[in-house]
Amino acid sequence: MDPSRPPVIVLGGDSNALSIARSLGRDGIEVHGLGVPRFVTRSRHFASHLPVPPGEPEKAWADVLLGPATEHLRGAVVLAASDVGLTVLLDHRDELQQHYVLDICDVAAQRALLDKLSTYELARKAGVPTPKFWRIDTAADLDEHLDEYVYPMIVKPLLSHLYQAMFPGLSKFRIVADEAELRRHHGELTERGLAVMLVEQIPGSDEQLCSYYTYLDESGTPCFDFTKRVIRRNPPGMGVGSHHATDWNPEVKDVSLRLFKHVGLRGLANAEFIRDTRDGTLKLIECNARFTAANPLVAAAGLDLARFVYRRLTGDPITLPGTYRRGLHLLYPSNDFRAYRALAARGELTFGGWLRSLVAPQTFAYFAATDPLPAVARAVHRSGVAVRRARQRLLSR
Hints:
Elements: E1 8-11, H1 15-25, E2 31-34, E3 46-50, H2 57-66, E4 77-80, H3 83-91, H4 93-96, E5 101-102, H5 107-114, H6 116-126, E6 133-136, H7 139-144, E7 153-157, H8 160-166, E8 174-176, H9 179-191, E9 196-200, E10 209-216, E11 226-234, E12 240-247, H10 250-263, E13 267-276, E14 281-288, H11 295-300, H12 305-313, E15 329-331, H13 333-345, H14 351-357, E16 362-364, H15 373-396
Parallel strand pairs: 1-2, 1-4, 2-3, 4-5, 15-16
Antiparallel strand pairs: 6-9, 7-8, 7-9, 10-11, 10-13, 11-12, 12-15, 13-14
Helix pairs in contact: 1-12, 2-3, 3-5, 6-10
C-alpha cells in the first residue's frame, strides 16, 4: 500500500464493491468496506471490513463514518456502491465533507433519481418515454384507477433499498396478473410502510434491456459513453442481470443524456431502458447515480471508473479512452444457470442454445485467478443459506 495516497471507504454494494477494491488495490490504495458483505471483503484488496452496529442501515453507516471507529480514516475518499450508501452521502453531505473527500454531485438531482416515482415524473417532463405508471398510496387510490390498469403489472417500491432490506432476494418488485394479486401484494407492501407505484410491464424478453453509463463533470459534460445489453436475468422477467454484454447503442445514449441534462445530474450516471416491441420505443426502467452491479464489466471493457473517480478527486486526473471493448460478456454462472432452467421449463431456451450464448469473451463478477477468495467465500455463504432454507421448509412441514 502507498501511505501517501488517501484510502477509500466503499459504502455497500457487492460485485461492484469488489470491482472497486480490485481496481484501486492494484494501484496500492488501501480500501475499506462499510456495509459490504463479508465474503466480498475476503478479497486481498480490502484492508478491512468495518463493523456496523445494529439498527437502520442509513443511521448506522452514518454513525460509523462520523464516529471514533473511523477516526484513523479521516481524509479518505468515500464512494457509494449502493442506494443506502448514496442516501448516507446525500443526507449527511455537509458534515461528511468536513472529514472525507466526496465526489461531485447535485444533491437534489441524485435524491430525485433515488425515488422511482420522481424519476418517472422527471422523465415525462424531459420527453423521455416511460411505461404507464400510477402513484398508489391507499386502497382508495387503488380503486380510482381500476379501469386503467393493464395486466401483468409491476408493483414497484419507490425506494428499492428499503424493499430489499425487508424482502431479501433477487427481485426488486412484484409482478401481478390480476386485481386480486394486485390488492394482496399492494396491501403487503404498504402495511410494512413502503411507498409504492404501479407500472405497466412492457412485454418482451430480457434481451430488450439496455443501459447507458457516463460521468458528468461540473459543467454537465459527459466524460465517456458506454452501453451494454442484458442477455438474461434471474428470475427471467423480474430479477437481476445474470448475463450481460457490451455493445454500442447510440439511441440509448441520446435518450439517457436527455434525462440527465434535464435533471441536472453530476458525477456517475446510469440509466436502464427496455425496448417496447409493440412500437419499438425505448422506455425508462430506472436510473442510478453511483457504481452499479455491472461495474466489473465496465472496468474489464477498458473504462476503469473507480480509478477515474479516485484520481479525479485526489488531484491526479486521468482521461478515459474514447473506445472500449465491445462484445465482452459478464457472467454470473450459477444465477445464469438458474435463469436457463426457468426459461427451459417454459420452452423458451434449449440447453444447446444456452451453451452457445456462453461462447464469447467472458469476465466474472467474483472470480479472479489472482484473487480467488471472494468467489470461494461466496459459494460457501450461498450453500449455507440454501441449507438453512431447506431446513426451514422441512420444519414447516
